[in-house]
């Protein structure tokens, strides 16, 4: 067995790596079971219905009021769903992640004598949780770059969802972050392109249902200017 220590876990919310604020998190992915039991059945019968998902974050509150601060983001989260990525085993290329589009439904801030200020954040997701992999760890990109490929061992046929978290940006005019796929790990084609990056940003890029996603995936960066773009990219097949 290969158990995982929680000190490996990481958490990205929008443009921020929240691992340094978080003491822990949990999530739940649920599917409604629709009762189709009839008079002739001798036991309950069900079919799957709509999916839903929730998550909970246990945070230490950093009250920095800057636009990129944890406190500032929490104040706007209810009206602005956030791209959220949970990485329970870390952020090495190819390890599992969970992609969520997160609506903050409740934030409880607690302050007690002789203790730190904490924030318990409850999240209601749009849709379910998409299980995927890290395509490229948090990396500072300075030049045009073809990332290392991730092998799924087979293709899939129902699209997917990619997450981009840009946590630092300096000097560059832009960085075009592109998800590519390949059948043979040699000839590559564009699967999806994120909105052109010109500063701190995050994005959830949905690849349409019914789209074939080939066996191999990688990230390609097309950089303009001189500087650096630090970004974290994941992909979940559907």
Q: Please, could you describe this protein's structure?
A:
- The chain has 238 residues and is mainly beta.
- The protein contains one helix and 16 strands.
- It has one helix spanning 70-76, and strands at 10-13, 16-17, 22-35, 46-60, 82-87, 96-110, 118-125, 130-141, 145-146, 150-151, 160-170, 174-182, 189-193, 201-207, 216-224, 228-237.
- Strands 1, 2, 3, 4, 5, 6, 7, 8, 11, 14 and 16 form an eleven-stranded antiparallel beta sheet that branches.
- It starts with 9 loop residues before the first strand and ends with a strand.
- The mean pLDDT is 91.
List the helices and strands and how they pair.
Elements: E1 10-13, E2 16-17, E3 22-35, E4 46-60, H1 70-76, E5 82-87, E6 96-110, E7 118-125, E8 130-141, E9 145-146, E10 150-151, E11 160-170, E12 174-182, E13 189-193, E14 201-207, E15 216-224, E16 228-237
Antiparallel strand pairs: 1-2, 1-5, 3-4, 4-7, 5-6, 6-7, 6-8, 8-16, 9-15, 10-15, 11-14, 11-16, 12-13, 12-15
Short description:
With 238 residues, this protein is an all-beta fold. The protein contains one helix and 16 strands.
Question: What is the radius of gyration?
Answer: 20 Å
Strand content: over 45%
How far the N terminus sits from the C terminus, by CA atoms, comes to 28 Å
Sheet with the most strands, sense and barrel status: 11 strands, antiparallel
Q: Helicity range of the residues?
A: under 10%
Structural class: mainly beta
What is the element string, with H for helices and E for strands?
Answer: EEEEHEEEEEEEEEEEE
Query: What is the mean predicted local confidence, pLDDT?
Result: 91
Question: What coarse outline follows from CA principal-axis ratios?
Answer: globular
Strand tally: 16
Secondary structure tally, helices: 1
Oligomer: single chain
Low-confidence runs of at least 5 consecutive residues: none
